Amino acid sequence: MKKITGAEIVIQTLIEEKVDVIFGYPGGAVLPIYDELFKQKKIRHILVRHEQAAVHAAEGYARSTGRVGVVLVTSGPGATNTVTGLADAMMDSVPLVCISGQVPTHMIGNDAFQEADIVGITRPCTKHNYLVKDVNILPNVIHSAFFIAKNGRPGPVLVDIPKDIQTFKAVYKGKKNTKVISYYKPNLKPNINQIDQFIKLLEKSEKPIFYVGGGVINSGEVASKNLFKLIKSTGFPCTQTLMGLGAYPTSDNQCVGMLGMHGTYEANMSMYNCDLMICVGARFDDRITGKVSGFSPKSKKVHFDIDASSFNKSVNVDLTVQGDLARILQAINKKIEEKKISFKKAKIKDWWIQINKWRSKDCLKFKNSDKIIKPQHALKRLDFLTKKYNPFITTEVGQHQMWAAQFLTFNKPKHWMTSGGLGTMGYGLPAAMGVQIAHPNSLVIDVAGEASILMNIQEMSTIKQFRLPVKIFILNNHYMGMVRQWQELLHGNRLSESYMDSLPDFVKLAESFGATGLRTEKPSEIDDLIKEMINVKGPVICDVIVDPSENCFPMIPSGSTHNQMLLGPNDKVEGEISEDGMVLV
Amino acid sequence: MNKKNLKHILSIMVDNEPGVLARVVGLFSGRGYNIESLSVSEVDSHKFLSRITVVTSGTKIIVDQIKAQLAKLIPVHNLVDITELKSFIGKELILIKLDVKNKKTFDLKKKLERLSAKILEENDLEIIVQFTGSPNEVKKMESILQPYKIIEQTRSGLVSMATGTDYIKK
Prior knowledge:
The complex is a heterodimer. Chain A is globular and about 75 Å long. Chain A folds into 3 domains: 3-171, Rossmann fold (3-Layer(aba) Sandwich), CATH 3.40.50; 192-359, TPP-binding domain (Rossmann fold), CATH 3.40.50.1220; 375-545, Thiamin diphosphate (ThDP)-binding fold, Pyr/PP domains (Rossmann fold), CATH 3.40.50.970. In chain A, helix 1 packs parallel to helix 7 and helix 3 runs parallel beside helix 5. By secondary structure, chain A is α/β, with parallel strands linked by helices. The termini of chain A are far apart. Chain B is an alpha+beta fold. Chain B folds into 2 domains: 6-84, 2-Layer Sandwich (Alpha-Beta Plaits); 89-159, 2-Layer Sandwich (Alpha-Beta Plaits). Chain B is 26% helix and 41% strand. Chain B is built from 4 helices and 9 strands; from the N terminus they run βαββαββαββαββ. In chain B, the strands form 2 sheets. In chain B, strands 5, 6, 7, 8 and 9 form a 5-stranded antiparallel beta sheet that branches. Chain B has a 4-stranded antiparallel beta sheet with strand order 2-3-1-4, with helices on one face.
């Protein structure tokens, strides 16, 4: 068989993995791969302006399609710039393969030019990583990387390829004839005995709640369908995490909204008072639980997850079922049908009456104004006017992110891309690029803050080059809003370094990159601005000047429990926030 | 009962590849777990497998979490919590160099023989003693030799296996 170079192997293996787009940035240590990229037509390369953005763009691509996102960067700074993106993908379980160039094998460890021990650096923030020192195993490594990235709980895999390996030759026999790692076999099939135990709990419960996370979205559309069927057949309420929004339609009447620190009152109260909590692909994150010792004290807890290390990590549960959520939910639905179990509405009637009482507090209400734009109002209008386009939404991190989660509708999975675990400012714009590349004809909106957007603003250049019609909707309050909110709440209103001075003129900034810039500070103009944003064919930056003093409510203050929510600015924390609470982030 | 900090011996079968120890150790340090003892060596040169023995301690929940996190590492083939098995053996090895210049060593040597410690090196100046035993026996040996002038000493991590079936291959 004909021998080909390592660089050719990289391209061939990617083609076999059905990769159609790579996000990357060239440099000395990956020139052979870029040369091969130049010679072929199957894979499109998107040249970003910073490697961190390449990873976020690949995340946006992956999360909106369910496929593996691919990144290509050079050694040293090229590779270290990907670290934030990789950590982000690790926390939010996004399948990625990141290929980095490395100095030639004989130079490794010599502090060579643009050398960094990227395998060492990224070990804790990747699902797995490889340094390839033998060109003969390169096909095995790349196919394994894809297998690992997308199987089990998804995550990022980094493959570091020294430059000499890219030029050495080896035989590539195709994917079918390449051995991938055989012992990595995540268990997908649920244990039927545990399903039976769960059904018993289900039948007994009078105050149940489904607590749904991003795992459902990662499992795929079948999982969402099965979940919908289960929730409909039981008639139980359902709450979603930030990552889970869209796994179950948020406009459905059985959905009580997002839970957690900025979740709805009814969702958090239901979690606190339930007798059966059914966690489907969520991980009891600290944003969700609040103070762990006071978390849902009266409930039996059931946890479905593909990752066994998520069980009993922060909260003790009574029953765990490990496996692929689509299969677990299918097995449950099947059991319900076989046993002809019908869930009587009467049994949970009182529970729904109670939930509707909590609902009637209308915890997301805000005082609108005709003088100044309230950020909540701007998002409500954005939701109303874009709903029919079924838009893909990405966000940056902060107040605008929480408001977007609260006020936008998510009726389909894979339409909501936000940095949940790591909380990476600067995520939204590059993620939106990745989404737009995967869905060229769809409406893609990055809901941003004026602080976050500046963290990857250089990507306007990428947007221009690839003519991506991404819409950037900045809620501009001249503050790092969430930082300011915490300073008001916890640090005596001393607004240390949270004011955003010397902001650019976003309209001119847009224009300088060939995009359209729109700006308003009048509530009466917000609808027209959004309509124009939709109608403009190319990229748009909307600079929406909003009330600088608005804070994000409801809120569970640090170190508090679900039943101790602050519903608005006039609610005060009961007593002082404890020292334990103060140290929490 | 579940709140108690207990010692656990974990035996982990891993691919013998560069960086595998860093993955295991990094997991412990990164997540704030304890390593009380560690030993690692290749055990299968055909399949390139190494066996790592880690002694750690924690509540049941913490140790379960450690095991679940370890099992998630890609190069980890299998792991067994040896302490949870019916009966097992755990041994350490210690080397101690004693200063015997101008000293009579007759009693010492007799004592060592009785404790089945080996003398690996003996001359006018020093004696090097090798002793293998359970962690407690090794500790006891250290205290027995305390009265003598110890020049240096070194101790291996614990290696351990259960009696009966090969649980780690199962």
